[in-house]
What we know:
With 363 residues, this protein is an alpha/beta fold. The protein has a domain at 1-21 and 33-120 and 309-363. It contains 10 helices and 16 strands. The protein has helices spanning 34-49, 70-73, 117-120, 155-162, 170-176, 191-202, 240-253, 272-286, 299-311, 354-362, and strands at residues 4-10, 13-19, 23-28, 57-59, 82-87, 90-95, 105-107, 123-126, 137-138, 209-213, 218-225, 228-233, 260-264, 291-295, 319-327, 330-337. The radius of gyration is 21 Å and the shape is globular. The N and C termini lie far apart (46 Å).
Amino acid sequence: MITSLKVENFKCFKSGIFQFSPLTVFCGSNSAGKSTALQALLLIKQSHSDGSLTANRLSLAGEYFSFGHVRDVFSHDALGDSIRIVLDDLTFLSSVKDLNHDDYFLSLDTAPALSHSLYTSSFHYLSAYRLCPQNSYDTNFNTSIIDVGIYGQFAISELVRYKDSPTPNQKLAKKICAHLVTKGDDRQIKLEIAFREAMKKITPGFEINLTDHKNLDKVSNTFPTGGKSINEVRPVNTGFGISYVIPIVLAMLCTAEDGYLIVENPEVHLHPAAQSMLAELLTMASTCGIQVILETHSDHIINGIRVHVKENSIEHGFVTINSVKSDGGERIVTKIMIDRDGGLTDMDTGFFDQAEKDLLRLF
């Protein structure tokens, strides 16, 4: 599990320290820098995946994120001439003054250690931009791992392929399907069953029909209405929220214990009640061996986490919120913890206080 991350002269941060827990949340105003921490993790992950680390490089253009050139990641107000990223006890140091600023990689001063669970554990990342509803979806041709795609583009494909297989995270599946499992029943829960039950918590009455168009290397789905499969609605004729949340739910079920799930803006296009329930499910996932890392602008996500913590007596320190703000060009990170009763250990200025400010103006 990741416990800490430090960046120096990386993008908007001259220096920044972030603490991590089983469930870690990043929040803050637009362009304050909260995405930078996630991007540092993605930079390390993609550099390991494409083999760049073995060549003592960090790849600035890759599977998870493309930053641009060296000049695009070197802080404009740098203190010194090196970029440093420290992930737990691993240090990635690059002396930028010696680099071609038009390159798409950072040369590292020393060979990095290749021993961290981030490299090899189950990993899913969902970008803030996700694929909008489609009449059909591409098949994922890589059958070696379950991959919903960073835009959720392969979610339906993977659901079709693995629907009858055991859910990779059985601990989470059994919590979600507790009402279906009798005491002493040790049978594994199939992915489709766990997925349907999780979606019903977010969207009551949820149903889905799946079709595999093998000859076209495509898959499709429809949503039955009124409990009758004859009345089927295409995804493009259904609200965006359902299609946007499907990859998140599938990714959490398909992230094995000791794995990582990173989601940007999970709340997009969801009703407040659905946001709150999704937050509860993501918190539940973090109690099932998954390190869940979120970036959010939603107080409903924060409050949904708090409710789940309180109602399940989750210990203090299990959830860490990194509240990031910009003050006079300086980036300030405030660490906020959630107590067992759902209370917050700190209330940073600008931390989801806009509703109160607006109400004060109204009344």
